[in-house]
Amino acid sequence: MKYGFFDDNNKEYVITTPKTPLPWINYLGCKDFFTLLSNTCGGYTFYKDAKLLRMTRYRYNDTTPDTNGKYFYIKDGDTIWNPGWQPTKTELDSYECRHGIGYSKFTGVKNDIEAALVTFVPFDDPVELTKVTLTNKGNTKKDITLFSYVEWCLWNADDDMKNYQRNLSIGEVEVIDSTIYHKTEYRERRNHYAVYSVNAKIDGFETSRDEFRGAYNGPDKPAAVIEGKLHNTIASGWYPIASHQLNVSLNPGESKTFVFALGYVENAEDDKWEKPGVINKKKATALLSKYQTTEDFDKAFAALNAYWNDLLSKFHIESKDEHVNRMVNIWNQYQCMVTFNMSRSASYYETGIGRGMGFRDSCQDLLGFVHLIPDRARERIIDIASTQFQDGSAYHQYQPLTKKGNSDIGSGFNDDPLWLIAGTSAYIRETGDTSILNETVPYDNDMSVATSLMEHLKRSFDYIVNHKGPHDLPLIGRADWNDCLNLNCFSEHPGESFQCFGPSEGPVAESVFIAGMFVKYGREYADLCKLMGDNAEADRALAEVDKMIKAIEKDGWDGEWFVRAYDAYSHKVGSKECDEGQIYIEPQGMCVMAGVGVEDGNAKKALDSVKEKLDTKYGVMILQPAYTRYHLELGEITSYPPGYKENAGIFCHNNPWISIAETCIGRGDRAFEVYKKTCPSYIEDISEIHRTEPYVYSQMVAGADAKFHGEAKNSWLTGTAAWTFTNISQYILGIYPTLEGLSVNPCTPAEFGDFNVTRVYRGVTYNIEIKNPNKVQKGVASLLVDGKEIEGNIIPFDGSKKTVNVVATMK
Question: What are the residue boundaries of the Glycosyl hydrolase 94 supersandwich domain, all occurrences included (predicted)?
Answer without folding.
Answer: 11-293
